[in-house]
Amino acid sequence: MKERGVNNGHIIHINSVLGHSLPNTLPVSIYHASKYAVTVLTEGLRRELVQLGSKTKITSVSPGLVETEIADALGPEIKERIFAHNPCLQAKDIADAVIYTLGTPPHVQVHEITIKPVGELS
């Protein structure tokens, strides 16, 4: 962006609620750690942009459980158990949050959107 002279863009990081807490669930601490890194990266970049006098916005979107292909890595039985017994979001729900963020006026910066399905406990 800087190389192209863009000083008023919008950077959106897709994070996770797991980047803000450490739940007592499946032992997937590498995933949690990567999402914590996104949280810190987002805030660090936001501060750097402010120091540079940039008008570029930066937003982190942190969804709860979303029914996506990432669960395929857990195997079909665990995947079925997770999605059958827990409320979950769809990819369109996250896309709608991103579109909302992009539609804000130039003077409004959405720092964080946490989006969870109704009934999610964590």
Structural class: alpha/beta
Fraction of helical residues: 25-40%
Please give the largest β-sheet: 3 strands, parallel
- Please count the helical segments: 3
- Termini distance? 37 Å
* Named CATH topology of the domain at 10-63 and 90-112: Rossmann fold
Q: What order do the SSEs take from the amino end to the carboxyl end, as H and E? A: EHEHHE
Number of strands: 3
Into which percentage range does the β-strand content fall? 5-15%
Overall, the morphology is: elongated
Low-pLDDT sequence parts: none
**Strand order across the biggest sheet?**
1-2-3
How would you describe this structure in keywords?
122 residues, alpha/beta, Rossmann fold, three-stranded parallel β-sheet, 3 helices, elongated
Give a verbal description of the structure:
- This is Dehydrogenase.
- Keywords: Oxidoreductase.
- It comes from Timema podura.
- The structure is a single chain.
- β1, α1 and β2 form a beta-alpha-beta unit.
- Strands 1-2-3 form a three-stranded parallel beta sheet, sandwiched between helices.
- It has a domain at about 10-65 and about 90-110: 3-Layer(aba) Sandwich (Rossmann fold), CATH 3.40.50.720.
- The chain has helices at about 30-50, 75-85, 90-100, and strands at about 10-15, 55-65, 110-115.
- The mean pLDDT is about 90.
- It is α/β, with parallel strands linked by helices and about 120 residues long.
Task: Show the helix and strand layout.
Blueprint (H helix, E strand, L loop, with lengths): L9 E5 L14 H23 L5 E7 L12 H10 L5 H12 L9 E4 L7
Parallel strand pairs: 1-2, 2-3
